[in-house]
Specification:
By secondary structure, the chain is α+β, with helices and mostly antiparallel strands. The protein is about 40% helix and about 20% strand.
Length: about 950
């Protein structure tokens, strides 16, 4: 009865048209306030309290690059950039400046994207207690709608930035995609609009062409305001009507049309190659029209599709893991291609030299599922995983962020994608799962492939010794496999417990306090292991877990370092105890947990998470990693196969060469710096990797285990049952400081490389170990990077138009020895690289000699305080704080004390600190240039 009543709730409702093309019969969640202004603009407002006291503003435009005329190719994206370069109410960089004063930063919180069919702007994490600021955000959206300044000088200044974005993004993957798009879009208009556009047009278009696109398409009837956050919904609606309702709607507006991809009766085929491509990828695509009505049947079908795809991908994984194959990976999935079309795709990544064999194996397993379907047991496992996932979301619904709901509402506006409350959606999911049987899901899976509209694409390295099969070769395989009759899939599932041995009850020998964190309780177990439990109510049902022991890679000999790189990967991919990895995955169906071992430079340990009911399972897995790790030669071979294939074309991988050069200089060519190459794969030994894992993950007495979240003192019994039974020796290891770092003085290296798209990549690293550590200095170290980031944004990106963006990071670490580090990196116009490098160094010099801008410092302080106020509300923050404190022995710095330190920092402090750490720092400079575009950099 419940099922029928629930579905009837949706069925009696009429069609709701929120999109020009799509309709839905499923009502919008009741607490969303949705309306349409007299000018045609829609709005969606939802009260949500994660993060507390914050709101997200999204401005969604149902227009994009597909609407450009031929002489406007790239201008939709160009216009998106111009939205931050002056409007009616915010001159110049006024939007960015105004929001920065509230801790809302450009790039992280303020951003936008342009696609073929939509353009979306967002302002996230806006503090809500100041009504003037909320109105200001609405005025930003108002100006984006129809009041951009689009001044000549600003347009010209942005041409270089766009060109540099194109240069940065035009990597091998994008170049391959550009070759494939004419086939993917079957010669339609989508194939002629790649969003970034034609650089000849970008460099030379007339101002009127950009303004024409803006006036024609940025109209309120194509726009929606989406606001989600800790706000008064009624007041926000009133202000939206007042501010956004004033945007005029012209009487002679152009009609928004929708392009389609032409159909094809016969298979379309395209091979794309690039010298820098690192793997061969095969995709068999089946094009379909999206359903224009989103109703109960459509939603139920999408759930069945998700289940079928999960089962297919589980089979692919099991096949590859448990067999000697020609495959690196295989998968199946659905994806959006255009507003009106989607692809069902079979993806295959074959091993080098085994292209046809790999494709045949992947296609065979897919065809086996088409012919014989999936089993009831497979279906029950994926159903249980889906139910569990929704149960956990529902438990922690108060931690679903504003942006999650905002993006769902964006989908509702653009494609009428249903947006329900989590309670309603879970009820729907439960009822649908209860109804769906394996025959129905198999029927849905068999409906994925289409007779027409098939597209086969292959991409890979452009190398003389790589012989690619022809279209005919693939067609022969498809035909022969389709005609063959395959045996059904079979499996054997272990019915035993994870741990079969009997574990004795062990005493807890001592309790202790964690300094400064009153609620955290410490325990010393009989084997010497230390356990810290910190209960919180920051999430309804979340337990975060961390374990660490000093030593790590620092205690591994130079000869064994190569094998140490794969030790944890080998253990993770081999399974645990009596369970190989695929059996373990089945055993854990319906469980909510993650657990990963690590061996880092100075520590080994684990990171993980779970929920209350699965805490015991998490402890069982941890016990098995210590007591019964598993190492399979087949897992080892898969790791080596993966590296062999990825390194086959590494000599043409400019990013790898650049990164390796940096790694060597940053460690002064230390013998402990291991660079993966075809030549040294021979040093990755199975026995050595297994030995290292057993040596590092062995002595519980040397480990500290930290639990944060929905955990309390009553759980120590479960924790002790497993951790207390681990072996423990009366020894305490310490990590070794190998004192690697930059060479004294300045080390430079210049690389000249063949490039498809010429660019210069610049990396500058400053390091100073003659420093002292304090909490205040650590904050100032971070502030230096943020101040420099603002200067480089202005000087290099905006004034020079020489780079899409400069990445700046800086830190002050305490262990193993106090070290200040600052890194600057960016790609740039090769014609300007020498000048831009001069700017990098001149700004480093200037921040030492001159006072920084007080308003910039104030913005950074505000951002740090705002971020801290949010961070302290998450379990991950407390896990990191407790773990770091236990490692260093430092006193706990309260949130109030931290904010007071931030507030105390002055312009004079920054100048003094810069003078303390920068002038005497050692330096590394790495420049990579295109062979045909060598510049004046020496």
């Amino acid at each position: 009865m419940k099922v029928k009543l629930f579905l009837a709730h949706f069925m009696i409702l009429g069609l709701t048209q929120v999109s020009a093309q799509f309709k839905t019969t499923i009502p919008l969640r009741k607490d969303v306030v949705h309306g349409t202004l007299s000018n045609g603009m829609q709005y969606f407002i939802l009260h949500n309290e994660w993060p507390k006291d914050r709101a997200d503003f999204y401005f969604v435009q149902n227009v994009g690059a597909i609407l450009e005329d031929d002489n406007q190719n790239g201008l939709a994206h160009f216009l998106e950039h111009m939205a931050f370069n002056g409007t009616e109410h915010f001159k110049g960089k006024g939007i960015i400046t105004m929001l920065a004063k509230e801790g809302v930063t450009f790039g992280r919180d303020i951003n936008a994207y342009t696609a073929h069919d939509e353009t979306v702007y967002n302002i996230n994490n806006v503090p809500v207690k100041n009504p003037v600021l909320l109105d200001s955000c609405l005025y930003v959206l108002h100006d984006w709608s129809g009041s951009l300044s689009l001044k000549d000088a600003e347009i010209d200044a942005e041409r270089g930035v766009i060109h540099e974005e194109w240069r940065t993004r035009k990597n091998a993957e994008l170049r391959l995609q550009s070759q494939l798009e004419p086939i993917i879009y079957n010669g339609g208009k989508y194939a002629k609009r790649d969003v970034l556009g034609d650089m000849n047009i970008i460099d030379n278009f007339k101002y009127k062409q950009l303004r024409d696109y803006y006036k024609k398409w940025y109209l309120p009837n194509h726009q929606a305001v989406v606001i989600v956050g800790d706000i008064d919904v009624a007041k926000m609606e009133q202000q939206i009507k007042k501010i956004m309702g004033s945007v005029p709607m012209p009487s002679n507006a152009a009609e928004r049309t929708y392009e389609t991809i032409p159909d094809n009766d016969n298979l379309l085929y395209k091979l794309a190659v690039d010298k820098e491509a690192q793997k061969t990828a095969i995709a068999l695509n089946f094009k379909k029209n999206k359903p224009l009505v989103q109703d109960v049947a459509t939603f139920e079908n999408s759930i069945a599709q998700q289940l079928a795809l999960q089962m297919m991908n589980n089979r692919f994984r099991e096949y590859i893991v448990n067999n000697e194959t020609a495959l690196l990976s295989a998968g199946a999935g659905n994806s959006d291609v255009t507003r009106l079309s989607s692809f069902f795709t079979l993806n295959v990544i074959p091993k080098n030299g085994q292209i046809l064999e790999g494709f045949k194996q992947g296609y065979t397993e897919y065809e086996r599922a088409i012919q014989n379907g999936f089993t009831k047991e497979e279906l029950e496992r994926v159903k249980e995983n889906m139910r569990t996932g929704y149960e956990n979301q529902l438990k922690n619904k108060d931690k679903i962020g504003n942006s999650n709901w905002a993006q769902q509402l964006q989908g509702y506006f653009l494609e009428a994608a249903p947006v329900m409350s989590l309670e309603d959606e879970f009820e729907f999911i439960k009822n649908t799962l209860a109804k769906l049987d394996v025959d129905q899901v198999n029927k849905v899976f068999r409906a994925f492939p289409t007779e027409k509209n098939q597209i086969l694409t292959v991409s890979g390295p452009d190398k003389e010794d790589v012989k690619y099969p022809s279209e005919f070769d693939y067609a022969v395989i498809i035909k022969s496999v389709n005609q063959e009759k395959f045996a059904p899939y079979t499996e054997s599932v272990k019915k035993t417990d994870l741990i079969t041995e009997k574990l004795a009850v062990k005493p807890i020998v001592k309790k202790f306090e964690v300094k400064g964190i009153k609620e955290a309780k410490g325990y010393v177990l009989a084997n010497g292991a230390k356990v810290i439990i910190y209960p919180t109510t920051l999430a309804q049902d979340q337990i975060l877990f961390s374990a660490f022991s000093p030593g790590g890679m620092s205690l591994v000999s130079e000869a064994d370092l190569p094998s140490a790189q794969i030790a944890t990967a080998l253990a993770k991919s081999s399974g645990l105890g009596d369970f190989k990895s695929t059996d373990l995955q089945k055993q854990l169906s319906g469980k909510t947990l993650k657990l990963s071992p690590f061996i880092a430079e100075h520590y080994e340990g684990f990171s993980g998470s779970t929920i209350k009911k699965d805490l015991e399972t998490l402890m069982q897995l941890t016990y098995l990693y210590f007591s019964h790790p598993r190492f399979e030669t087949q897992s080892y071979k898969r790791i080596i196969d993966y590296y062999q294939n990825s390194l086959e074309n590494v000599s043409d991988n400019n990013n790898k060469i650049f990164g390796d050069t940096i790694a060597l200089l940053d460690t002064n060519h230390s013998k402990r710096t291991f660079l993966l190459s075809k030549e040294n794969l021979q040093y990755l030994k199975f026995d050595t990797a297994s030995k290292i894992f057993n040596e590092r993950i062995t002595n519980a007495a040397d480990f500290t285990f930290v639990f944060v979240g929905n955990v309390n003192e009553n759980d120590i019994e479960t924790i002790n049952k497993y951790l207390g039974n681990l072996s423990g020796k009366n020894t305490q290891e310490k990590y070794t400081d190998h004192k690697t770092g930059l060479a004294k003085g300045t080390a430079k290296e210049k690389l000249i490389r063949e490039m498809n798209v010429p660019k210069t990549s610049i990396y500058v690293h400053l390091e100073n170990k003659k420093v002292t550590f304090s909490d205040k200095k650590q904050i100032m170290a971070y502030m230096l990077s943020q101040l420099l980031d603002k200067r480089y944004l202005e000087k290099i990106r905006e004034d020079e138009g020489g780079s899409y963006g400069v990445q700046v990071s800086s830190s002050l670490s305490k262990s193993p020895t106090p070290t200040f580090s600052l890194q600057v990196s960016f790609d740039c116009n090769p014609d300007k690289d020498s000048k831009l490098l001069e700017i990098v160094y001149s700004e480093l010099s200037r921040i030492v000699k001159e006072d920084v801008d007080a308003s910039n410092l104030s913005d950074i302080k505000q951002d740090l305080i705002k971020s801290n106020q949010q961070n302290i509300k998450s379990n991950s923050y407390w896990l990191n704080i407790i773990t770091d404190q236990l490692k260093t022995g430092d006193e706990f710095l309260s949130s109030a004390a931290y904010e007071n330190l931030i507030k105390s920092i002055t312009v004079k402090d920054i100048k003094q600190y810069a003078a303390e750490v920068l002038p005497e720092a050692n330096k590394v400079e790495v420049i990579m240039q295109a062979k045909a575009n060598e510049s004046g950099i020496k």
